Amino acid sequence: MSDQIKSLACVILRRTLSSYEDQKPLWDAIKPETKEMLRGGFFEAMKTCQTKDIIHKMSNLLVEIQGAMFEEDETVWNELLTLVFQFVNSEVTLHVEAALNIFNGLFSYIIDHLNKYKQDLLNIFR
């Protein structure tokens, strides 16, 4: 599959999952098993992606999915934050950039939740 198709798929999936039908996000209509499969697939894809444009779009999609899931279960951020901390400490520049992009997206959703990680975040940004 070409990078253009992957990139477009990320954008379409993000827009579709965040669209509303009958005042509820479309994400809510998906079965829990499917939600977990999608989320897990994106975590794995993020770890192996080597294209800046695609990893940027995947990180936006992952933040959108996690934001929808946060409404259901606040612990869902733990796995994403673990990935972000791994990426920030990575020697792969693409991973560091993806982590910062995810942080940027997270701030709009869970600033209060991130206060628990205040000291870790300060150390990372130093």
Written overview of the protein:
The chain has 126 residues and is mainly alpha-helical. The protein has one domain (3-125). The chain is 75% helix and 3% strand. It has a two-stranded antiparallel ribbon. Helix 1 runs parallel beside helix 3 and helix 3 packs parallel to helix 5. The longest helix has 22 residues, at 93-114. The protein is globular and about 45 Å long.
Q: How would you describe the shape? A: globular
Secondary-structure-based class equals mainly alpha
Summarize the main sheet. Answer: 2 strands, antiparallel
Summed up, the helix count is 6
What is the succession of H and E elements?
Answer: HEEHHHHH
Strand order of the largest sheet: 1-2
Q: What would you report as the Rg, rounded to the nearest angstrom?
A: 15 Å
Helix content: over 70%
Strand content: under 5%
What is the averaged pLDDT score?
81
Show unreliable segments.
none
The N- and C-terminal alpha carbons lie at a distance of: 39 Å
- What is the domain tally? 1
Total beta-strand segments: 2
